[in-house]
């Protein structure tokens, strides 16, 4: 788990992203208990309400669920939900502007595919 927080971004958002990353890399598998708001508060020396804000956003999105008196757990299918959301964000953040710029420069779809293949991830 991330050991320190970036003071340039909202802390609750970083808590939420830390949990998401741990779900995506299987550190928190489905049905696994995640640290509580008090554990996050103690770990990062923050107000428990701040940690709760990040955790509650994940509850609202169906990524985490609460077992009364026990803690917060990863929902079944949470990793797939996060992957789908990340792919949509990737498309909107990178592919749409790439296609617009390619169109602006007169690069055909075929040429664009060749360029992508040229820079293939290994």
Structure at a glance:
With 122 residues, the chain is mainly alpha-helical. Helices cover 60% and strands 8% of the residues.
Summed over residues and divided by their number, the pLDDT gives a mean of: 92
Report how far apart the termini are. 26 Å
- Morphology: elongated
Q: What is the β-strand count? A: 3
- Return residue spans where pLDDT drops below 50 for at least 5 consecutive residues: none
**Beta-sheet strand percentage?**
5-15%
Features:
about 10% strand, about 120 residues, three-stranded antiparallel β-sheet, mainly alpha
Task: Explain how this protein is built.
With 122 residues, the protein is mainly α. The chain contains five helices and three strands. It has helices spanning 11-24, 37-44, 48-60, 78-105, 109-118; strands at 33-34, 64-67, 71-74. A three-stranded antiparallel sheet has the order 1-3-2, covered by helices on one side. Helix 1 crosses helix 3 and helix 2 (37-44) crosses helix 3. The radius of gyration is 19 Å and the shape is elongated. It starts with 10 loop residues before the first helix and ends with a helix. The relative contact order is 0.12. The model has no long low-confidence stretch (mean pLDDT 92).
